[in-house]
Amino acid sequence: MQQSIYLAGPDVFWPNAVALGEAKKALCQQYGFTGHFPLDNELDLSALAPYEAGIAIYQANIGLMNQCHIIIANMTPFRGPSMDVGTAFEMGYMTAQNKAVWGYTLDGRLYSDRIEGEQTDRDGFSIEAFQMADNLMMVGATGQLGGLLTEALSEDMDNHLRLFERVLQQIQKSR
Q1: Care to name a GO molecular-function term for this sequence (predicted)?
Q2: Which of 35, 102, 105, 165 minimizes the number of CB atoms within 10 Å of its CB?
Q3: Over the chain, what is the mean pLDDT?
């Protein structure tokens, strides 16, 4: 049976989101997996209020994750110094089901360096300084049944897909 991979990340917000999702799914197929991208959900949201539409998307993505054996999460910082919060939820959801969690980031800096590079921020709050690419809970999730690849690359589609393919290669080696 071919294993299914949920393709998580802020990729759904990229201007070329559909093309990126299709390229990732094609790479999954090359490595013997079936990729599921959140935008695969064919939802008619036209008659729904914005809140209802959001809940419908949430439920559809939960359904996709329930079908998958593995998650690959794009943990590249998004709209701030840390990864996308929706992606963090998806990683936690899959971890709670004891499914393999793999991640990658195109930002090779440590989380603490992206914040301030100090032990506290300007408001006096402590900053995690565990020499990790992101929050310790997210990095920890990748360490149980999966892994994390970190590389300092520009966020263009070619670099994104190269690093994504390296994750697929690691998954294949770990089987």
Answers
A1: 5-hydroxymethyl-dUMP N-hydrolase activity
A2: 165
A3: 92
Residue found under tokens 């209020």: 49
The predicted pLDDT at position 124 comes to 79
Q: How many C-alpha atoms does 121 have within 13 Å on its Cβ side?
A: 11
Domains and CATH numbers, the chain: 4-174 (3.40.50.450)
User: Of the candidates 140, 68, 130, which has an alpha carbon nearest to the alpha carbon of residue 103?
Assistant: 140
**Cα–Cα distance measured from residue 57 to residue 34, given in angstroms and rounded to the nearest whole number:** 21
CB 31 within 8 A of CB 22: no
Interacting residues of 33 by C-beta distance below 8 A, sequence separation 6+? 2, 3, 4, 5, 70, 168, 171
Cα first-last separation, the chain: 13
Instruction: State pTM to two decimals.
Output: 0.93
Coil/strand/helix, residue 5: strand
What residue has token string 């690359």? 153
